[in-house]
Design a protein that fits this description.
The chain is of the alpha/beta class and about 270 residues long. The protein has a single domain, classed as NAD(P)-binding Rossmann-like Domain (Rossmann fold), CATH 3.40.50. The protein is built from eight helices and seven strands. The protein has helices at about 20-30, 45-55, 70-85, 125-155, 175-195, 215-220, 220-230, 240-250, and strands spanning about 10-15, 35-40, 60-65, 90, 155-160, 200-205, 260-265. Strands 3-2-1-4-5-6-7 form a seven-stranded parallel β-sheet, sandwiched between helices. The longest helix has 29 residues, at about 125-155. The protein is globular and about 60 Å long. The two termini are about 35 Å apart.
């Protein structure tokens, strides 16, 4: 390993670490040398991730956290600081997806392509807010919670998980796409605010990956075919590739990179 890529002696917080992208990022960070606080809403899932981190020879704690609640986020950061004494890396991965029309489509109107039965009713206030609270407010709460500690130490790496949907519009995902676009701008603003404190804030925009959140789509043969046809590289992403990118952004190799959104999407956003 290049010494600039090592995370030996570093401590990371990874949200949404019970499964999928967050779990893989936590494990790759551990492989690179970091101790990890893993957080998610389901205790059994983060317990399993923490056990896998420990099996890699790193220290881990599992802290049940709903990132849409600022008090729970503050408790997560406090618990991490009490246990490890510092936070070097924050990975904001927790997110939720809603596929639903903003307003129902009349039967007499030609509907947008790829719509589903979820076009028969409108998105409720609660459904909209739930997506925004997790995908955007959660990122804000986590960044705000670690900032004082990172500013005091004059060091930090923050990695926000965005999406190709932040720049590409699709039907039925208004709340998700809007929240991810906002994450991109939040990333840029915080990068400028915190640059004087040597805190690097960047984002990763995954494309099509098979996770629990997207399982229904990938299990549908026709939907899978359409997805693969639309990806220039012609395949779905490998979660480990995202983990390696997160480790790179968390490492000293990117000490001169901040305010950037890197899309690992097989070429989707290049079209």
């Amino acid at each position: 390993m290049l010494p600039e890529m090592s995370l030996e002696g570093r401590t990371a917080i990874v949200t949404g670490a019970g499964r999928g992208i967050g779990r893989e990022m936590a494990l790759v960070l551990a492989e690179a040398g970091a101790d990890v606080a893993v957080a998610a809403r389901t205790q059994s899932e983060i317990d399993a991730t923490a056990a896998d981190v420990t099996a890699l020879g790193r220290e881990a704690i599992a802290v049940q956290t709903d990132v849409s609640r600022s008090d729970e986020v503050d408790a997560l950061v406090d618990r991490t600081l009490q246990h490890f004494g510092k936070v070097d890396i924050l990975v904001n991965n927790a997110g939720r997806l809603l596929r639903l029309a903003v307003a129902p489509f009349p039967d007499t109107v030609v509907q947008p392509p790829r719509v589903s039965r979820e076009s028969s009713r409108r998105t409720t206030d609660e459904e909209w807010s739930e997506i925004v609270r997790t995908n955007l407010d959660g990122v804000f709460y986590c960044c705000r919670a670690v900032a004082p500690h990172m500013m005091e130490r004059r060091y930090g790496k923050i990695i926000n998980v965005s999406s190709n949907n932040a720049t590409q519009a699709f039907p039925l995902v208004a709340a998700y796409n809007a929240s991810k676009a906002a994450v991109n701008m939040l990333t840029r603003v915080l990068a400028l605010e915190w640059a004087p404190y040597n805190i690097c804030v960047n984002a990763i925009g995954p494309g099509d990956y098979h996770t629990a959140m997207t399982d229904a789509t990938w299990r549908d043969p026709e939907a899978r075919r359409r997805h693969l046809e639309g990806i220039p590289l012609g395949r779905e992403g490998d979660l480990r590739e995202l983990g390696i990118l997160a480790a790179y952004l968390a490492s000293p190799a990117t000490d001169y990179m901040t305010g950037q959104v890197i899309y690992m999407d097989g070429g989707l956003t290049a079209k």
